Every structure is written in C-alpha cells, then in structure tokens.
C-alpha cells in the first residue's frame, strides 16, 4: 500500500514505514536513544530528501521518546534535577551548533563533517562501551561485586549538589558540559543526541543505567520539540504524514522496549547498545570509502521558477 | 483503435478549423492531481497531421517539466574518502522532467541544425547557469543520468500513427515527478530539414486534497505547523503510553 508524502514529494510503502517505526521505537524505549542515528539514513535510502528526513525524524522521535519517557516516569526512573542541568547546557550548545552548521554550509562541507563526526563518536563510544560491558559481565561471572560507581576527579569540582535519584553527590560542571556538547552535536547532526548522552551519563557522571535511560528520554523530548518547530519554521521540511506513519509503530515499539529493558541488567543493556552503535559506525565508514553509484550531489535550491 | 475514432470524431466536431491546420494536438488530461495514493501518472497526447505532408515529414514531441534552480557538485576522492569537491555548478532553469518521442526510430537522419534551432532533444536543450564553468556539458550529462535513474528522463517513447493522419503518444511520469506546468511541444519537420508546423500544450501537475492542504499550510503558517506537529507527536506518545498501561 503506497501513500504519498506531501512534503517529501514521493510515495512510500505503508508497511515499510510501520515496521521501521516499530524497530526504532523498540530501541528507543530499551536504550533511551531517540533512534535518529538509525532512522535518518534508512529514510534517505527510501529516497526521501535528507532535509525532510532529518526534520520529520525529529518529529517522530518526539512521539517515541515521550511515550518511552512516560513509561519510565511511572517506574520512577527519571532524575529531573539532572535532566534540568543537562538541558541548560544543551540549550546553549544547540544554539551554538546552529551557527556552526551555518558556517559549514557556507564552505559546503557539511556532509563530510557530519559523517566524520558520526564515525568518530560512534566508533569511540561503541568500542569503549563494548569493552566495559564485557569486563563487567566477566567480573560478575567471577562473583566480584561492583562498586556503585567510580569516583573521578571531575566529580570533585566546585558547585557540588546531591542527585538523590542517581545516588550521586557531584559537581554540576560535568553535567552542564556534557549537555553543551550534546546540544552542539544534535544541532549539527539532526539527532536527539541520546547515543552520546547515554554513554556520557553512565561513564562520566556514573549514573545507574536504569535512571540514565529515563533521564536521557526527558532531554530528547525537549530537544526534538524545539527542532520540530525550528525545522518547520525555517525550512518547511517536516512531513507530518511521514512522521505520523512512523510513530504508529514507534509508540508501540517504545512500550515493548521499556518492558524488555526492565528485565535486563545494566551491563547487558550497555553490551547490546554497544553492538548496535558499532554496526552503524561500520556502515558509515563503508559509505565514505566505497565508490558511490552516483559520484555527485544534486540539490534543488528553488522549485518552479 | 476505438479511442482513435472517438478522438477523430471529437476533433472533427469541436474544431472545424482542424482541416486548415497542418498539425493539431491536444492532451487527454490537462490537470494531473497528486492525491494521497498517487503512484505516477501519464501524459497522453493525440493529434492530427495533414496526410498530404505525412510521407515527407517527421513528427517529434518534446515534454519538459517545470524548471528549477539546481546545484550540482561532484564528489572527489581524497585519501580514500569520498567528499564533495570544490567544483560546482548552478543551473538556473533546469527542467524537472524531460521526455521526447518521435514516429521514426532515430533522429540521426534529420539535419541537426534544425534540431538545434528548435532545442529538440536533451543535447540541444539550453540550460542557463549563473557561473562560468567550462564543463557545462559534463554537468548536463550528470543531470541526465540522475534523471534516468529516477524515471525523470525518457526518450524511448514512440508515437503511434494511424492512417497517416492520427497520432498518439504516452509519457510516463514517475511518482516523484515535480509539481508545476509541463509543456508538451509537437513539431512537424520536413525531410529536407525545415519546420512545417508546431503546436504546444500544457499539462498542470498539482497536489490535491490532503497533500495540497498540508503542503500549503506548512508554507503559509510554518510556525503553527511546527507547533501542531510537535503537539501532535506528544499527544500520540501520551496515547500510546496510556493504551499500553491498560494492557
């Protein structure tokens, strides 16, 4: 069953979009990532213009992550204080990111910059997470009991406050900085930033994995709300037919993901997320190395002149 | 066959002047609407040609989609990595669709100067650019292969001719075809390379119903559209979560 997308300007298969939404929604509920880093490339493969894919994806992630966020909130797995502090840094970062993107667009190298940032971050985060989660799983098998979390020098910086939900008493400087970096990256790459935020909260802040996911979703809800409105306002690239079709699958997937996640241990979740991140990184590396079928880029600047 | 007769009678009755014209054409559907289930369409053109002239002449039909502003950049390989190169071109009036048909198999028998003069065929199509670039033809070929891969460039079409008087041709528009006015231009060329007659028809491709409403609203009220999209997504997330809570 083909459905015409009014803004993207092409028809797509209803069932393909439903199943894509379901899979990505599942990952969102399970890992606290928005899934934009998976979905955006998929949509482009279906022939949807990149600008429309990125913007409609923001709108779709908003639905999935809000659904997931509510499920986590009911299980009291959200650290609102931490979320607020991360968000403060995030807002400043995303404004700066918009200006950085504008500069990259002027010099015409935004595509390769985005690809390379993805590859570097995904590879680093994926490998680190894989190594760490495997180590933890091994230790648990040997019967060693883990410390609650590692204390690093960053936690000792000034302006310490107590995060009850996360069982932490640390400086607010690292969370503000993490929020800032995620904000910059999500503006440039057009994603919620969950796949960077989740590992950062686990390894740098030392938050428990279960709380990290709900808190990450809170941040993603805010970021994607703003970017849905901004993309519509500035570029008119949000295709609501596309995002509606995706979100039918996504809200269902997110709820199932949340249920599965509760049954898993933190290190198991981290291990699975690491595998997915590494797969995406490998695909992206292939993309810039393999000779393209069409060795050129065509952009429509203005239609119907 | 039956449709030819119907068209013939139609032309005969409606337009008494047809006998005086050497070439006359019309399109079956002047308005093509893109609805929610749009999956491509056809431009069907039919016409009559003076039978006394038919034997010594050639029919050619050119279809051009609405023009747009395009930027083309080549990808280059730097140290094994494919990145967008510095070399670029901006076409200011590239047609969004291009098709051509004829009643003979190849146009090589026709004097090229007349084809050039009338801008018939992709090679004779003039696309303006706003920067000087020596590789203009190179970029035009890139655009051609881009269109070919997407069904936006079609030249293998035949014109069916009946009794050396009536003719008919079909042009397939792919689902991703751009919206706007398509110009269908028919030419009757004599075998010694002169233009005998030409005729032009327009077909309008536009979005209709929900598709039209949404795309208009997104342009006229971009902020509200975004706000509603965001609120809709939040509502959908809430409903999904509430429904599942009860299962």
Could you describe the 3D structure shown?
The complex is a heterodimer of chains A (305) and B (247). By secondary structure, chain A is mainly alpha-helical. Chain A has ten helices and five strands. Chain A has one domain. In chain A, strands 1-2 form a two-stranded antiparallel sheet. A two-stranded antiparallel sheet of chain A has the order 3-4. The longest helix of chain A has 33 residues. Chain A is globular. Chain A starts with a strand and ends with a strand. Chain B has two domains: 206 residues, Macroglobulin (MG2) domain (Immunoglobulin-like, Sandwich), CATH 2.60.40.1930; 40 residues. In chain B, helix 5 crosses helix 6. Chains A and B meet through strand 1, helix 3, helix 8, helix 9 and strand 5 of A and strand 5, strand 6, helix 4, helix 5 and helix 6 of B.
Q: How many helices of chain A does DSSP assign? A: 10
Structural domain count of chain B: 2
* Oligomeric state of the chains in view: heterodimer
Q: What is the overall pLDDT average of chain B?
A: 84
Residue windows where pLDDT falls under 50 for at least 5 positions of chain A: none
User: What would you call the structural class of chain B?
Assistant: alpha+beta
CATH homologous superfamily identity of the largest domain in chain B: Macroglobulin (MG2) domain
> Could you tell me the radius of gyration of chain B in angstroms?
23 Å
The spatial strand order of the largest sheet of chain A comes to: 1-2
Q: Sheet with the most strands of chain A? A: 2 strands, antiparallel
How much helical structure, as a percent, in the residues of chain A?
over 70%
Radius of gyration of chain A, in Å, reads 19 Å
Main sheet: strand order of chain B: 2-12-11-4-7-8
Task: Provide the structure class of chain A.
Answer: mainly alpha
What CATH architecture of the largest domain in chain B do you see? Sandwich
Largest sheet descriptor of chain B: 6 strands, mixed
């Amino acid at each position: 069953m083909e459905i015409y997308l009014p803004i993207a300007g092409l028809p797509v298969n209803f069932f393909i979009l439903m199943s894509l939404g379901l899979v990505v929604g599942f990952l969102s509920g399970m890992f606290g990532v928005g899934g934009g880093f998976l979905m955006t490339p998929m949509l482009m493969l279906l022939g949807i213009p990149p600008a429309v894919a990125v913007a409609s994806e923001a709108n779709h992630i908003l639905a999935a992550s809000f659904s997931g966020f509510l499920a986590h909130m009911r299980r009291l797995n959200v650290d609102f204080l931490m979320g607020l502090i991360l968000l403060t840094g995030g807002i400043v970062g995303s404004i700066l990111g918009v200006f950085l993107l504008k500069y990259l667009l002027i010099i015409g190298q935004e595509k390769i910059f985005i690809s390379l940032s993805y590859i570097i971050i995904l590879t680093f985060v994926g490998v680190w997470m894989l190594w760490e989660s495997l180590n933890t799983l091994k230790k648990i098998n040997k019967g060693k009991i883990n410390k609650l979390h590692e204390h690093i020098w960053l936690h000792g910086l000034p302006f310490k406050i107590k995060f009850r939900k996360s069982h932490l008493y640390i400086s607010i400087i690292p969370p503000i900085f993490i929020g800032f970096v995620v904000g910059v990256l999500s503006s440039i790459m057009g994603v919620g930033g969950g796949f960077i935020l989740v590992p950062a909260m686990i390894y740098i802040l030392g938050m428990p994995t279960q709380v990290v996911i709900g808190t990450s979703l809170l941040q993603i809800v805010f970021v994607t709300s703003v970017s849905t409105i901004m993309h519509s306002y500035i570029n008119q690239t949000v295709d609501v037919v596309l995002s509606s079709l995706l979100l039918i699958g996504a809200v269902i997937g997110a709820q199932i993901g949340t249920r599965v996640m509760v049954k898993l241990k933190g290190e198991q979740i981290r291990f699975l997320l690491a595998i997915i991140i590494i797969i995406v990184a490998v695909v992206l590396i292939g993309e810039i190395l393999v000779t393209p079928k069409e060795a050129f880029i065509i952009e429509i600047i203005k239609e119907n002149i | 066959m039956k449709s030819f007769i119907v068209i013939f009678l139609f032309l005969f009755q409606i337009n008494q002047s047809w006998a005086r014209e050497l070439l006359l054409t019309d399109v079956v559907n002047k308005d093509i609407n893109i609805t929610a289930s749009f999956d491509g369409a056809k431009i069907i053109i039919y016409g009559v040609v003076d039978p006394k002239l038919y034997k010594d002449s050639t029919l050619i039909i050119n279809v051009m989609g609405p023009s747009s502003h395009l930027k083309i950049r080549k990808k280059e390989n730097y140290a094994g990595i494919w990145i967008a190169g510095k070399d670029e071109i901006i076409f200011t009036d590239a047609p969004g669709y291009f098709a051509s048909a004829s009643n003979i198999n190849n146009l090589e028998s026709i004097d090229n100067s007349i084809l050039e003069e009338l801008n018939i065929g992709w090679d004779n199509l003039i696309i303006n650019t706003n920067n000087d670039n020596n590789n203009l033809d190179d970029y035009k070929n890139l655009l051609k292969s881009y269109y070919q891969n997407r069904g936006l460039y079609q030249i293998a079409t035949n014109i069916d001719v009946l009794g050396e008087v009536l003719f008919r041709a079909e042009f397939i528009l792919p689902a991703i075809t751009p919206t706007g006015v398509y110009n269908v231009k028919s030419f009757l060329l004599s075998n010694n390379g002169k233009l005998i007659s030409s005729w032009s028809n327009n077909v309008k491709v536009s979005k209709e119903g929900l598709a039209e409403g949404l795309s208009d609203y997104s342009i006229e009220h971009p902020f509200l559209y975004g706000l509603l999209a965001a609120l809709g997504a939040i509502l959908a997330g809430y409903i999904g979560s509430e429904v599942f809570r009860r299962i």
